[in-house]
Design a protein that fits this description.
The complex is a heterotrimer of chains A (about 325), B (about 325) and C (about 300).
Chain A lengths: L23 H4 L2 H15 L1 H18 L1 H4 L30 H36 L3 H15 L2 H11 L5 H12 L1 H15 L2 H8 L4 H9 L4 H24 L10 H10 L9 H28 L8
Chain B lengths: L2 E12 L7 E12 L3 E5 L6 H8 L7 E3 L3 E4 L2 E2 L5 H10 L1 E4 L13 H11 L9 H14 L16 H13 L5 E5 L7 H18 L2 E6 L2 H7 L2 E6 L2 E7 H6 L4 H7 L10 E3 L27 H5 L5 E3 L2 E3 L2 H16 L1
Parallel strand pairs in B: 3-9, 3-10, 7-8, 8-9
Antiparallel strand pairs in B: 1-2, 1-4, 1-5, 5-6, 10-11, 11-14, 13-14
Helix pairs in contact in B: 3-4, 4-5, 5-6
Chain C lengths: L12 E3 L14 E10 L9 E11 L4 E5 L6 H8 L7 E6 L2 E2 L5 H8 L2 E4 L13 H12 L4 H14 L5 H5 L8 H13 L5 E5 L7 H18 L2 E6 L2 H7 L2 E6 L2 E7 H6 L4 H9 L3 H4 L21
Classes of the chains: A mainly alpha (about 325), B alpha/beta (about 325), C alpha/beta (about 300).
Chain lengths: ~325, ~325, ~300
């Protein structure tokens, strides 16, 4: 992830020339325009495009699950341990549940946990990073110490311990646990970028324009870090998806819910490989891996957002 | 005098993925003689750096050479690629950029940078021992008026002016025949600027390479060079020997540029400016590009592109001035 | 004939020393007294760096003072201390009856409404994500308590005064759509938005093309004369200092080596450092026979005649 520090850009031909901007650009709020432009840039990057397609596909499946899945994922009405048949395209589990339906419904939990935990982790990372980065001094020292501590403690073992001891194994427990163990990396990166940005002249200019701290941090500094925050989010989401799958697989999640991780858990419990039901292992495993990879692919595109030189011509 | 570089009809177009096409250099003819020190002057965005990059084959997408012939030592270099281009770069030309001092690897000493350059361009079978690099390094560092200890320093231990001198030394290391200095002193402290420019001037005189100095600062260029070429909106509008330009410019743009300089010690100081901005480079020109800002502009100026015609001791592209000279000549021959 | 009506015949900026203000200035004087700034080096056991060493001077109400020196002379540090961005290690800075070095938080904020700064780098001084209108509007909303609509009206006025017309079009632009000279004008408009009493201009034209400098300097001079505000012009370029200021202070390694009326000091410099700075001004004409041909005296140009 390159953090581009500013040098005055060379005068590009065309700067200063009258831009024939139509009236439309004044009607649409700048934030939407920004988002539209960002999506277009992401789309133009080949790797990001693949990533976006996979994510989009998974989201679509998750939303339309009741429409697509042929059966209920929890109904134990089928012959257990059977291979792929006409009714059960991917076979059945040891409890007689349709694997295909489980895969479809499972996308919901996996996606939700991944995105929610990723978002929560990023939120914490941004808050910690911005506050620490903007004001040098005791606040920065304390927050940096906490961040470094969180970085040093191994994530997976901590996650396992937390999940094992927390009462009430709801999905939100998992979200919290995952977010709690993955905010630190983002915080570190965001803090160092905030430190760079706070000494930019336009931040000093904002101070001279009478802006207050809150506005400076959230309207001057943060918008210039969006690609960093986005990259952080996608990174955290990747980690969250894998973490959720790990927790479920280890049985520390909530086995009554249906997610790709729980399919793996039951597959392991029911010795799927021994009974020749390799689909039970490969289907969720591949799906998890693909989703995780897709977030990483999108990150390539986010890199291009912040560094125009990486933008591909397509 | 032998001709080193001859460019005819050079056009450079800038084609960004999103956005309009812009012609940054249009229809430029330029001849450089061996051992000359030429200055290329114009405001930001006029295409001077782009032209120099085009001449030295340093253009990168989305900028592209769009037609035109460039002959270096009689050889057409506009179309060479690969190994032939590398050979050309080896002892053909070198570049010193404004940010050259920032192009040094912060974790390597100056000596290492030098070794890099020498080894990268070594001919087949040529080897550079550490001793050879050091000797050549000492030679070059001395040429740019720096003490030998600089060879063993890291870039952050040197000041901006010293780092710029190091990049000049690196440019000299392969004994190029042609060096382009693109705003070499603009980013430096004002007092150091003078010293570095003097070093460049002395080097050019002593070593005899052909040099091109690019700057938006006509004053700096007039002090250092033999001949000045003025660019505006991608075209050459005037070319004169520096001493002649000091006595008076012919093109109204050059005249206006000269008016931006004054002696702060004089009793009365007049400082001129040129209001307005460069024309839209995405549109083809009809007529003289300077016309909207020109105080001499006439009807013909907006309609016809003035050709570069001989004026004074060089050339200038101005309808009004060319006509005046013609009238003077006529008057003389009649009277 | 030439289209005189279309081309604005720019009168050249004239710097002759005394400038009469068109309004009496109500700005309090800025007194810098015995100010020093020492940067202690905690990491390595190197000596501490003295950026500013016992500097004292006064900016009279409505005066234009130039602070000149090469980089490292301490002028930027002094600018930061005067505008309250840094605190002096010793000495005091007073603006009227306000002790600048003791201002904190809200008082400092209010101070910014009275003392503004113009930066050197037109590319860095504007947030690349905000429009011109937003940037110039914020001081109006913060210091003048204007509603967004009122503020935008003032923005248009200001953009017009700095020569960016039509103002509605420029207000919607983003910095990367403007040239360096245009950006600097926006920075000036923003600095003037809150009706400051003192403007500290830190090398406002050094990153601009030579052909653009006089225009920007003319703006500064005009505003100073029309509104009676005080101006501290910081530069290494003596030509700009000559054209804009009445008084000049020469700084070398944090110490004042010479000061006085600008024309006087430049014509009769007493310190060798001043002479060095004078020699560094790129002036091709001084190298030659000294006499510079004025545009009227250029040879081979018959007087303008109607086309035959």
């Amino acid at each position: 992830m390159t953090i581009v520090t500013a040098a005055p850009p060379p005068e590009s031909p065309g700067a200063g020339v009258e831009v024939r901007g139509g009236p439309a650009s004044e009607a649409i709020p700048t934030s939407l325009l920004f988002l539209g432009r960002a999506l277009r840039t992401l789309w133009s990057n080949r790797k990001a495009r693949v990533g976006l397609c996979i994510i989009g596909f998974d989201i679509l499946i998750a939303i339309c699950a009741p429409l697509i899945a042929p059966h209920s994922p929890t109904a134990t009405t089928f012959t257990p341990y059977s291979g792929p048949t006409a009714t059960n395209w991917l076979g059945t589990t040891g409890n007689g549940q349709d694997v295909f339906s489980q895969m479809i419904y499972g996308s919901r939990i996996t996606l939700m946990v991944g995105l929610a935990a990723g978002a929560l982790a990023t939120l914490v990372a941004v808050t910690m990073g911005l506050v620490a980065g903007y004001r040098p001094g005791p606040v920065d020292e304390v927050l940096s110490f906490i961040t470094n501590l969180a970085l040093v403690i191994p994530g997976l073992p901590l996650m396992i311990i937390l999940a094992a001891y927390l009462q009430g194994r709801s999905i939100w427990t998992i979200v919290l646990v995952v977010a709690f163990t993955s905010w630190a990396t983002g915080a570190r990166v965001i803090r160092s970028q905030a430190t760079t940005l706070r000494s930019r002249e336009y931040v000093t200019a904002a101070v001279f324009s009478g802006e207050r701290l809150f506005r400076i941090v959230f309207r001057e500094i943060l918008p210039n870090m969006t690609s960093l925050v986005a990259a952080s989010f996608f990174g955290a989401a990747t980690a969250a998806i894998l973490a959720e799958a790990s927790l479920e697989f280890l049985g520390l999640g909530n086995p009554s819910t249906v997610s790709w991780g729980t399919i793996l858990y039951f597959a392991q419990q029911q010795n799927a490989l021994l009974t020749g039901q390799w689909v039970l292992v490969f289907a969720p495993g591949l799906a998890i891996a693909l989703l995780a990879v897709s977030f990483t692919l999108v990150n390539f595109g986010v890199d291009a957002l912040s560094n125009p030189r990486l933008r591909e011509k397509s | 005098m032998t001709v080193l570089l001859e460019a005819r009809g050079v056009n450079v177009v800038y084609e960004p993925v999103r956005g309009v096409r812009i012609w940054s250099v249009r229809d430029v003819d330029l001849t450089l003689e061996q051992g000359e020190f030429v200055g290329l002057v114009g405001e930001s965005g006029c295409g001077k750096s782009t032209l120099a990059f085009a001449l030295t084959r340093m253009l990168r997408p989305p900028a592209r050479l769009d037609g035109g012939a460039i002959k270096f030592d009689g050889v057409d270099i506009a179309t060479v690629e690969g190994e032939a281009l590398r050979r050309q770069r080896r002892n053909g030309f070198a570049l010193v950029l404004q940010s050259g001092m920032n192009a040094l690897n912060p974790v390597r000493t100056v000596e290492h940078h030098l070794g890099d350059v020498l080894k990268a361009h070594a001919r087949k079978g040529e080897r550079f021992s550490a001793g050879a690099v050091r000797r050549r390094g000492a030679e070059l560092i001395d040429m740019v008026r720096l003490p030998e200890s600089v060879l063993y320093r890291f870039p952050h231990e040197l000041s901006g002016g010293m780092r710029q001198r190091v990049s000049i030394a690196l440019a000299l290391s392969l004994q190029p025949r042609f060096i382009v200095f693109d705003e070499p002193t603009t980013a430096l402290d004002v007092i150091v600027q003078g010293a570095v420019m003097q070093t460049i001037k002395d080097l050019q005189r002593d070593q005899g390479f052909t040099a091109m100095l690019i700057s938006h600062d006509l004053g700096v260029v007039l002090e250092a060079t033999d001949r000045v070429v003025v660019m505006y909106a991608g075209r050459i509008v005037e070319g004169q020997p520096s001493k002649a330009l000091l006595r008076g410019a012919h093109h109204p743009y050059t005249e206006a540029l000269l008016g931006c300089y004054a002696d702060p010690r004089a009793d009365e100081v007049r400082l001129g400016e040129i209001s307005g901005a460069l024309p839209d480079l995405s549109l083809p020109n009809t007529g003289c590009p300077f016309e909207p800002r020109c105080r001499l502009a006439e009807a013909v100026c907006a309609e016809q592109m003035p050709p570069l015609s001989p004026l004074g001791e060089g050339t200038a592209a101005c309808h009004v001035r060319a006509r005046e000279v013609g009238a003077t000549v006529e008057m003389r021959s009649v009277g | 004939m030439s289209a005189d009506g279309d081309v604005p015949a720019e009168p050249a900026l004239v710097g002759n020393g005394d400038r009469r203000l068109t309004v009496a200035s109500s700005v309090p004087p800025l007194v810098v007294s015995g100010v020093s700034k020492i940067y202690a080096n905690r990491l390595r056991s190197e000596k501490a760096v003295t950026a500013v060493d016992d500097v004292s001077f006064t900016i009279a109400p409505g005066a234009a003072v130039a602070l000149v020196g090469a980089s490292g002379s301490g002028k930027s540090t002094l600018a930061k201390m005067i505008t309250g961005s840094e605190r002096p290690t010793a000495g005091s800075i007073t603006f009227g009856d306000l002790a600048v070095e003791r201002l904190r938080r809200n008082a400092l904020r209010r101070f910014h409404g009275r003392v503004q700064i113009i930066f050197q780098d037109p590319y860095g001084a504007l947030n690349p994500l905000h429009t011109v209108g937003y940037a110039v509007m914020r001081p109006c909303e913060n210091f003048l308590d204007m509603s967004p609509r009122e503020a935008m009206g003032r923005v248009h006025e200001l953009l017009e005064t700095v020569g960016l017309t039509p103002p509605t079009q420029y207000a919607a632009k983003l910095p990367h759509q403007l040239s360096g000279g245009q950006r600097q004008r926006v920075v000036i408009a923003r600095a003037l938005a809150c009706n400051p009493e003192l403007i500290v201009a830190d090398e406002p034209v050094s990153m601009l093309d030579v052909s653009l400098r006089a225009g920007v300097l003319r703006l500064l001079a005009k505003f100073r004369e029309e509104r009676g505000l005080s101006l501290l012009y910081i530069t290494h370029d003596l030509l700009g200092a000559r054209v804009v200021s009445d008084e000049i202070i020469v700084l070398n390694r944090g110490r004042i080596v010479e000061q006085g009326r600008t024309k006087q000091v430049l014509q009769h410099p007493r310190d060798s450092y001043t002479v060095q700075l004078l020699n560094a001004v790129a002036n091709p004409f001084a190298a030659g026979d000294g006499a510079r041909p004025s545009p009227e005296a250029l040879p081979a140009r018959p007087p303008a005649e109607p086309a035959v």
